[in-house]
Structures are given as C-alpha cells and as structure tokens.
C-alpha cells in the first residue's frame, strides 16, 4: 500500500474507533469525500472496456488500490471489465485485465505519485459484469473505497478491504468479507450459503431475504454489542458481546466478528 493511502486509512480507522455508534456514517462520508461522485467533476471517463468468454476462466482475481468496485450479474455468456475515472484526475492509471491460466486477472494501479491531499480526490470506478450461467470464484483486494456485489452469482466471494465499506446485496454464493476499518452490510442475504464477516473496527449488518430454515450463528465483539433478530433459534450462549445459536440442524455457518463495533443479524 502506498504511504498516502496508509495515512488516510489510519485517520479513518481512528475516527471510527472513537465513534462506535456512527461508524458506518463515518466510513461512508470519508469514502465519498475522496472517491465519491461529488468528490470531482462528476464526469466519468472510461479507461477501456474488455470482454472475455465465460468459458475462458473459473475464477476472477481483482487487485486495486483505491476506488469503488462493482461486481454485477450479466445476462450474456461473456464477462466485461470497465474502469472509469473522474475527468478531473490528471494522473495516469495502469489498467489490465487478462486471462492467466483459468483466472481472469484484473489490476488497476496509479502510476503517478500524489503531490497533495486534493490530488487524491475524484471518483474511480471498476465495473465487472459476470457471465450468465456461470459461477466463478471471486477474490477481491482493495486498499480504500467501496466494494459492492450486486445480485451476483458465484461459487464464493472473498473480499479484503483495508478501509471503507463492503456491501453484498441479493447475492448467491458463499461470502467471506473482511475490512480493517469500515462497515460490512449483507442485504437480501441468501441463507443457503455460509457467510463470514470480519471487521477490525466497524459495524456488521446481515439481513436475510428469508430467514434460513437451518443455520448456525456465531456473533462476537470485544467492544460493542451483538443482536440476533431471528426467531425459533436455540441459544448455546446469549450475551451482549457473544451469541452462539442454531436454527434447525446442519445448515450453513453465519459468522460475524468485530473487535470494535456492533453486529446485527436479522
């Protein structure tokens, strides 16, 4: 990670740790200030679009430094990758998407060093559209920003983010989500698949489209509170900081852990 992003992430992490109740709001405001639509001119310029056949790869690896990443479900048998930036950003980017073996490898790096804090500002957005009738494994690593998985279908999705927010909405597949400083939201969750969510400092909210008929729950915080709002569960442990429970038997594990923050599962 570049030094200027380390500084930004450290500042955000400290702010979040000191504002537990508004942790998610702090993350969103910080991300939007630097990388959001209103952080620059609002005019996006495409750095290129690349297309790949869905039968060319089994997994997708995405590595970026600071931006918004959107993974969405497509309707054709092809995958597309597009990187866009705000027109006000003068620095150049290295954007590459290529097949390496059975992996679609996507990388975006900034070539130019920043001269001031204001140089960091401006929207950067990577959009990956998945092919229909395929379930690739996703591996996403981003230093700072936001990662959104929107109605996407995959075998598994592993997301690692240093600072910012992770949102998985209406997805199908196993989730493994980790953020050092920030928040994690699972919306319209699919209770048929395991979910692991970890935040060093930040909140975790998991909401199911339908309560899973069978599932195990492990929710743990060091400083903060855990809440499980699903009926008909058997509790092995039920405290403010730890909940271990089961609904039915033999279902997937729903696991959420944060060192500093709150956890809510509904």
Give the low-confidence spans.
3-7, 9-21
Structural class: mainly beta
Major β-sheet annotation: 15 strands, mixed
Give the integer mean of the pLDDT values: 87
Protein name: DUF4097 domain-containing protein
Keywords: Signal
Domain DUF4097: 138-265
InterPro entries: Toastrack_DUF4097
What does this structure look like?
By secondary structure, this protein is mainly beta. It has one domain. The chain has helices spanning 3-18, 23-35, and strands at residues 44-53, 59-73, 78-86, 93-100, 103-110, 124-130, 137-150, 153-169, 172-189, 195-201, 204-208, 215-228, 234-238, 242-247, 253-265. The protein has a 15-stranded mixed β-sheet that branches. A hairpin with a 2-residue loop joins strand 4 and strand 5 (103-110). 40% of the residues are buried.
Structure keywords:
266 residues; Toastrack_DUF4097; disordered N terminus; DUF4097 domain-containing protein; globular; signal
């Amino acid at each position: 990670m570049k030094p200027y992003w380390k500084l930004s992430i450290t500042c955000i992490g400290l702010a979040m740790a000191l504002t537990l109740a508004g942790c998610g709001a702090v993350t969103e405001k910080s991300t939007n200030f630097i990388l959001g639509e209103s952080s620059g001119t609002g005019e996006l310029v495409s750095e290129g679009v690349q297309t790949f056949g869905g039968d060319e790869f089994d997994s997708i690896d995405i590595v970026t430094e600071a931006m918004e990443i959107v993974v969405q479900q497509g309707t054709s048998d092809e995958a597309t990758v597009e990187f866009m930036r705000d027109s006000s950003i003068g620095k150049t980017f290295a954007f590459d998407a290529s097949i390496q073996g059975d992996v679609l490898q996507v990388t975006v790096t900034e070539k130019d060093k920043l001269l001031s804090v204001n140089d960091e500002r401006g929207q950067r957005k990577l959009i990956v559209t998945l092919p229909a009738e395929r379930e690739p494994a996703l591996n996403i690593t981003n230093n700072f920003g936001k990662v959104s998985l929107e109605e996407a279908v995959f075998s598994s999705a592993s997301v690692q983010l240093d600072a910012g927010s992770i949102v998985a909405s209406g997805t199908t597949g196993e989730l493994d989500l980790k953020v050092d400083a920030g928040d994690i939201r699972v919306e319209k969750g699919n209770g048929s698949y395991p979910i692991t969510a970890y935040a060093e400092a930040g909140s975790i909210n998991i909401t199911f489209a339908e309560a899973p008929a069978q599932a195990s729950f492990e929710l743990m915080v060091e400083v903060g509170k855990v809440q499980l709002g699903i009926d008909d569960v058997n509790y092995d442990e039920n405290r403010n900081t730890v909940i271990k429970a089961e609904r039915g038997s033999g279902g997937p594990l729903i696991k959420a852990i944060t060192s500093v923050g709150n956890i809510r599962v509904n």
